[in-house]
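Much of what follows relies on a compact textual record of a protein's fold. Each token is a code from a learned vocabulary of local backbone shapes. The record below shows the convention in full.
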Amino acid sequence: MIVSMLRSLPRSGSSRHLVLAACLPATIAMSACGVPAAAAPGGGTPAEPHLDAGRLVMATSSPNLQSVTTVVVGPPSAAEPTRLNGRLTWDEDHTVRIFTPVTGRVSRILVSTGQQVRSGQSLALIASSDFGQAQADVSRATADQTLATRSLVRLRDLLAHGIVATKEVEAAEADSLRAAAERQRATARLSLLGGDSATTIQGFALKAPLGGLVVERAITPGQEVRPDQMLASAPSLMAPLFVITDPTRLWVDLDVPERDLPGLVVGQWMTLNVLARPDRPIRGRITLIGSSVDPATRTVKIRGTIDNPRLELKAEMLVSAEVSVTGQLALGVPAKAVFLEGDRHVVFVEERTGVFRHVEVAAGPERVGLVSVTAGVRPGDRVVVDGSLLLNQLYHALRPATAPRAGAPGA
């Protein structure tokens, strides 16, 4: 009955799939209740479909086989390059975003955007009472330590002549240690700000911690600045005062779908294309593969590095990348043969007439009707291209509820 309905329907299309999905459970139920199957040529009744060692077995005379078509998988070829999208960013290993460590008002700006600076060069002058206070703290701590040291020397001399008690000397020693610790703390804080205790002025010089190119400047004369502005919620306040980087080396951030992760390794070469240089592909190398999947896009971040000696490439440029998996070969399997079961790609392989194996495969991108498969099938295998839905319905209807999951690709 189901074969006659199949013959009356088109070879492909949603109507055929709907009729199969509706009729197949009923056909299986009729067989289970003792309703005879369609007569085989010669008047006999074909054996019912069944599972044998995980394989779907159908009688060679079964009319259902008339709707099954297979093709032979050809020899392997080089895997199609994986195509990804991303953007260029500054190399964070050679980039610094500068904020002010003191509160004050900008009195003078010493560099401009696009200027090359060296490490330790002053970028701007800030009139800051905080900086003056740090210098004053060092001077006061130095004076206190000097006084405590002199008092300790005097009391030790008096103790030697029996004039003062021992406990007074011990108290003076504790005062001297506290004064030394306070001076050390104040000096260290002033050193972190880049100042010295020789003079007490309120002009703080904001300096470059490393050499490079000033690519961003978000500071104006007379602007009020403070150390906690990097914690503010307003984007205009979160912006660093200066960004200094080495633009001759850039990072490229790419989004990789989960299915394209197999075969990508750190150190692998990739080819980048940008709109600014459509006729000059750029070579880069993968340096990092992310350890988590973005729950919204289901992609993984990977990072690469590229050289930019002529400064033709700019940060935030959009790029497209092609990554070829070195040494990996792929088989071209017709797209009609591959279907999804949850998050797995599956095909049916015909081992011999009427015997079909349910196989999970590692499927890549589709090109001109062929899916790139790197594991799960071999050259010469016969894969089902028409009738796979019928086989899948039969397979799962006959499969015990506790049956193990199909083997992983290559099993």
Q: What stands out?
A: Helices lie at 2-8, 14-32, 129-160, 166-192, 235-238, 388-398. The two ends are 37 Å apart (CA to CA). The longest strand covers residues 277-289.
